[in-house]
Amino acid sequence: MNSSNPNMNMRRLHLILFLSFALFACKKKDEDFQPCDYLQDLTAYSFFKKGTYWVYKDSATSAQDCVFVYFDTVYSYHHKGNPLVKEGDYNFWDCRAHSSFDGYNYYYQIDMGFYGSNGVIGTWRKRTKPTNYVGTTFLMSNIFEEGSYIGAYTSPGGIYCRGFSQHFNMHSTNFYTVVKFEDTKNASEFSCRTFFYIGKNIGIVRKEIVDSNKVWNLIRYKIVQ
Asked: Domain residues of the chain, as ranges?
């Protein structure tokens, strides 16, 4: 067989172009589903079941705070009527934790059907107690690209991803797959500039409240997911 046959070479070229296009099309199709893939990560970073607890230590005063999950739920619902979201069945996650240090409750909620026009979705964080509602904002978004932005209509600040680390070392303790988010005026932290370091399947491992020079580090935990 003559491998230099121009007709044969042309057929091979057409085959290569067809396979390249098919691979590109498949890749593009997969990219269209990225919000769902990110959403899986979002629940791994910020949804925990009853029985979970975290113990934090104030780096300045050595005070400790035990935050424990006392309620969790996941349910499905049918959504329609929003032009930004395709009609269909979606999931909603909700877990609530109580702080033994100041008596506040923290609500963490993820609504799979609440997408912005750019596909960004986040974990809501509300801080409240019977005598004092502080505020509601986003803890994090589903986009872990440095500099990505998500805004909450309930918060005066903006929430930005400030980096992602496969290996984060804190006081001789190693945490893996940690994402860092900044809120320029965190509504749930009395409008203070705040940084959260959030580990996959662990939750918040470090909180820096810049305006008051407060740093809370995770020193002990039990996770139920």
From this structure: 1-32, 34-222
